[in-house]
Write a structure and sequence with these properties.
alpha+beta; 5-stranded mixed barrel; OB fold (Dihydrolipoamide Acetyltransferase, E2P); 8 strands; two-stranded antiparallel sheet; 5 helices; 176 residues
Length: 176
């Protein structure tokens, strides 16, 4: 039954847009164990990678708190022991939520993936917020550093020119 469902969903693209209701069982080594149509399945999240182990703890918490869990298989998914799926918690794409929180990143950028645009938008929101914080930090140190650098360079040049002039005068006096 399990293999039959995986083959049907993965091999026929017109069935891949179908959402299947699942019941959460447990998290097992970065895999989400669920029951779907009386079959136990081991799922992984399609096209996202966690930035650290904390991400999987957040996934487990979100999945446990969800009232309604569904999965959808991308037409490009390969049939393997663990099934890579889009996971929806109470109607919201879990991958999108993780990207918005900055916990995960997109593994492969492929415009043929079903929810690629939606996931890229979620990831770009996080990057733009992080970029603004970094820009503010850079601006804090800039105004004082540049003038100090210029002043130090001027002092160095004045010192060098004065010494060169003194050396030139000493040579001229020796030659006379």
């Amino acid at each position: 039954m399990k293999l039959c469902m995986i083959l049907l969903a993965a091999l026929f693209p017109f069935l891949s847009r179908t959402r299947y209701e699942v019941e959460f069982q447990k998290m097992n080594d970065k895999k989400i164990e669920v029951v779907c149509e009386n079959s136990e399945l081991s799922l992984s999240l399609f096209n996202v990678e966690m930035k650290n182990e904390h991400g999987w703890e957040v996934v487990e918490q979100l999945v446990k708190e969800a009232n309604h869990i569904t999965m959808e298989i991308d037409p490009t998914t390969q049939v393997k022991q663990e099934l890579s799926v889009y996971l929806f918690l109470d109607g919201k794409l879990l991958q999108e939520e993780l990207l918005e929180r900055g916990i995960a990143y997109i593994s492969i950028r492929n415009p043929n993936y079903t929810y690629e645009k939606q996931m890229e938008i979620a990831e770009s929101k996080t990057r733009s917020v992080m970029g603004k914080e970094n820009q503010d930090e850079n601006k804090k140190g800039f105004p004082i550093v540049a003038p100090l650098y210029v002043v130090n360079m001027l002092i160095l040049w004045i010192f060098l020119l004065k010494n060169i002039r003194n050396l030139y005068r000493k040579r001229m006096k020796k030659n006379m």
